[in-house]
Design goal:
Order of helices and strands: EEEHEEHHEHHHHHEHEHEEHHHEE
Number of helices: 13
Bound molecules: adenosine-5'-triphosphate
CATH superfamily: P-loop containing nucleotide triphosphate hydrolases
CATH architecture: 3-Layer(aba) Sandwich
Strand content: 15-25%
Distance between the termini: 54 Å
Number of strands: 12
Strand order of the largest sheet: 6-7-8-3-9-10-12-11
CATH class: Alpha Beta
Largest sheet: 8 strands, mixed
Amino acid sequence: MSSDPLVSLEGVEVHFTEENFLDFDAAETVHAVDGVSLDIEENDIVSLVGESGCGKTTLGKTAIGLQRPTGGTVAYRGEDIWAIRDGDANTDTEWADVRTSLQIIHQDPGASLNPNRRLVSILSEPLRQVNPELSRSEKRGRIYSLLERVGMNPPADFAERYPHQLSGGEKQRVALCRALLMNPDVILADEAISALDVSLRVEMMDLMLDLQDEFDTSYIFVSHDLSNARYFSVHGGGKIGVMYLGELVEIGPAEDVIDDPQHPYTNVLRWATPDLTLRETGEPPMRRIDIPDPVNPPSGCRFHTRCPKATEVCRREPPADYQHGEQTVACFREDDAHEYWESPELTD
Ligand SMILES: Nc1ncnc2c1ncn2[C@@H]1O[C@H](COP(=O)(O)OP(=O)(O)OP(=O)(O)O)[C@@H](O)[C@H]1O
């Protein structure tokens, strides 16, 4: 067995260049992800949180090989996945196997389930790919037992239904079954519970966690909702990674990040999550509420334009990653000897 992480991102950057059809010289580059390094281990859980547009989905898709990075590397078990994809790697690893190992479930499962096929046919497809040796009745047996396992009873009845005959929660369970039947190493759950009724969200997260051990998989859980990310990562013993304008500003064990946030932006997210009942004051702990444009991210620390703790040096210099216990934090405040402490406070 290799000791390499399952998936390892090193200095990953994803920039999207958008043409301006009125002025071809004025193409704009969106800095969706910048300089992110992150490891996903076996049976790991990493929840990615942050405001809309901060790059969570792009980072998740990059980690599972659905988005090619414009800079940095993404390795699967120590091998560069894009070199495998391009046939440039000196390896026996096949791109098709990498693709099978890295799965996704979306916010809208309905869109990814073929409306013209019954569930038994939708769920036979991954088995055909991964276990071609199974007979028809063995496939059916596996599908029934998994449907039963995710609470869709009686399975023989559900197996004959079409996607439009299912509720949103049932569709999401089918999407989860389909991903699991691929026998994946990692599932990217991209806002996978956000569209469900609040009462069903915890049920779905519990189901995903129960199935994690049985199927030996890791999750990258993308959510704009810190309380869901907390539930998922705390119950699964995983991490929370906080993103701001394309950068990972804090990552660590879920309880540490929630109970003892080190980055001033993590504090804002915590403040903005009423479920956490952690609001200490009526005012948000930041100087401005507007999010800067990812086409033109601020210099230095990207959060300096809103940060209540920013000093002149934050405008000038991007902070390094500092270690605070098991948390990794991109903020000068972690370094007692940094010139930050002598630098004049930003007030504009
Ligand atoms: N294919 C694309 N082409 C151009 N820009 C893109 C593309 N995909 C994403 N972006 C931009 O990249 C930035 C990050 O988007 P992303 O969807 O990763 O953020 P997010 O944190 O997942 O947001 P949300 O929670 O709203 O889904 C945004 O500014 C978005 O508009």
